[in-house]
Write a structure and sequence with these properties.
Order of helices and strands: HHHEEHHHHHHHHHHHHHHHHHH
Oligomer: single chain
Strand content: under 5%
Distance between the termini: 29 Å
CATH class of one domain: Mainly Alpha
Helix content: 40-55%
CATH architecture of one domain: Alpha Horseshoe
Number of strands: 2
Number of helices: 21
CATH topology of one domain: Serine Threonine Protein Phosphatase 5, Tetratricopeptide repeat
Keywords: ANK repeat
Organism: Trichomonas vaginalis (strain ATCC PRA-98 / G3)
Largest sheet: 2 strands, antiparallel
Protein name: Ankyrin repeat protein, putative
Shape: globular
């Protein structure tokens, strides 16, 4: 999935849950916190109805749970003045969420105060990486012996933290295999120049750099890897090809590129799943259409005799169910439990 598509997907999900940002409109206490408007904030605290322990219920923020205190929100937004006022006037206690949010808020004054009462853990490192504040990342490494989370570097596109991890661990293989997520072919070239094998695989799933390039929709990186000898049908631990990985992440450009370079459209994974099965399982509507239009076997069955329709129905992917029916998938195929999809 492209970064633009991922962003659109996030906001579609956000809207579908009926969340509202009205609390952040002008002349609310949350607006005052967000912009660290101390005068406006104090005006709210002087009202008779004010409760310093009031909480915001929201799915917007990144920590597990959906209830957030005023002090936690000050930490999240880096609102130093509001934070200090709450601590001084109401003696609000600093909890671990405050500390975690302080790494996102990016204000050393708040973070240092939180560190007096809470000890950072690995989740703080993840949020420091998410904030793209390399000073926070190295601080946690040096002062608390916390390790850089490589998966977080990939998730939050933090190339600087990625190279710090490489410098610390010297793990050329692991970094090479994940490097395609940054969409920069020269990074892959760097690793190859340092004697990393182009077909190196990770220890957990035996994925190659090409599998990751396909998943993250990195067409230029795939072009580079294929031109240097990787096979378009490279297999992971469970026999998934790059096309399987592209299909499950709705990486349309990857799917098109792989098909144009000879990828088998009905390649089989360990349980005989095709890329179409994976696209249906992960509700990747555009990929489902593309695979069908390029000749995918719509009635292909897994080891359990399940078709793509079985996967779509199981995951309540109504649009995909309609697409499959429109393109003529059999409604009568039974799986090994003797059940049809509908």
């Amino acid at each position: 999935m492209s970064k633009k598509a991922a962003t659109i997907s996030f906001f579609e999900t956000f809207q579908s849950t009926h969340n509202s940002l009205n609390v952040h409109e002008e002349n609310t206490i949350y607006w005052a916190i967000m912009y660290d408007d101390i005068k406006l904030f104090i005006s709210f605290t002087e009202r008779e109805s004010f409760d310093a322990n009031m909480a915001l219920v929201s799915d917007y923020y990144p920590i597990t749970g959906n209830v957030y205190s005023l002090l936690e929100l000050c930490c999240y937004y880096g609102s130093v003045n509001c934070f200090k006022f709450l601590r001084t006037e109401f003696n609000l206690q600093i909890n671990h969420t405050c500390l975690e949010f302080s790494f996102l808020g990016g204000k050393p004054d708040i973070m240092n105060e939180c560190l007096k009462y809470q000890t950072p853990d690995q989740n703080c490192m993840v949020l420091a990486i998410a904030s793209h504040n390399i000073d926070f990342v190295t601080f946690l490494m040096n002062e608390y012996d916390l390790k850089i989370d490589l998966s977080a570097c990939i998730k939050f596109n933090n190339l600087q933290a990625f190279f710090v991890y490489l410098d610390q661990t010297k793990d050329l293989n692991e970094c090479y295999i994940l490097s395609p997520s940054f969409h920069i072919p020269s990074i892959c070239e760097y690793f190859l120049e340092n004697n990393v094998k182009i077909d190196a695989t990770d220890s957990e799933n035996e994925k190659t750099a090409l599998h990751n390039a396909a998943y993250y929709n990195c067409v230029e990186v795939m072009q580079f890897l294929l031109s240097h000898g990787l096979c378009v049908e490279e297999k992971s631990k469970y026999l998934k090809t790059p096309l399987h990985f592209a299909a499950e992440n709705n990486s349309i450009e990857s799917v098109e590129f792989l098909l144009s370079n000879g990828a088998k459209i009905d390649a089989r994974a360990y349980y005989m799943e095709t890329p179409l099965h994976y696209a249906c399982n992960y509700n990747c509507i555009e990929t489902v259409k593309l695979l069908i239009l390029n000749g995918a076997n719509i009635n292909a069955k897994t080891k359990q005799s399940k078709t793509a329709l079985h996967f779509a129905v199981k995951n309540n992917c109504k649009n995909i169910v309609n697409i499959l029916i429109t393109y003529g998938i059999s409604l009568n195929i039974r799986d090994k439990s003797r059940k049809t999809a509908l």
